[in-house]
Specification:
The protein is an alpha+beta fold. The chain contains two helices and six strands.
C-alpha cells in the first residue's frame, strides 16, 4: 500500500518509493538521506502533527509536514497497525 509520510501513524514503517518536490527542497531531502529504497520508521509526532521524528539510515531526522507530504512510501500490511 502506498502512503505519504505525513499520513503515517506512530510506529509505522515503510520503504521510500518516490521523493517529490523541486530544486533546493528535493536536494535537501536527498542530502539528509531521504532517498528511494531507504527504510523509514515514524518514532513520534508533535501534538499537532508538525514536526515529526523519523528513524532513517541509522539516525533520527525531524521533518515538517510540508516536507513529509513529498515522500511516498510502500507500507507492508503487517506494519499498518502503528501505535497512536
Amino acid at each position: 500500500m502506498l502512503k505519504t509520510l505525513d499520513k503515517f501513524k506512530i510506529g509505522e514503517k515503510g520503504v521510500i518509493t518516490h521523493v517529490g518536490g523541486e530544486g533546493r527542497l528535493r536536494r535537501r531531502l536527498f542530502d539528509m538521506g531521504v532517498t528511494p529504497g531507504a527504510e523509514v520508521f515514524l518514532r513520534k509526532k508533535a501534538p499537532l502533527g508538525d514536526p515529526m521524528e523519523v528513524h532513517i539510515r541509522g539516525y533520527e531526522l525531524t521533518l515538517r509536514k510540508t516536507e513529509a507530504c513529498l515522500v511516498t512510501l510502500i507500507v507492508s500490511e503487517d506494519d499498518q497497525g502503528g501505535l497512536q
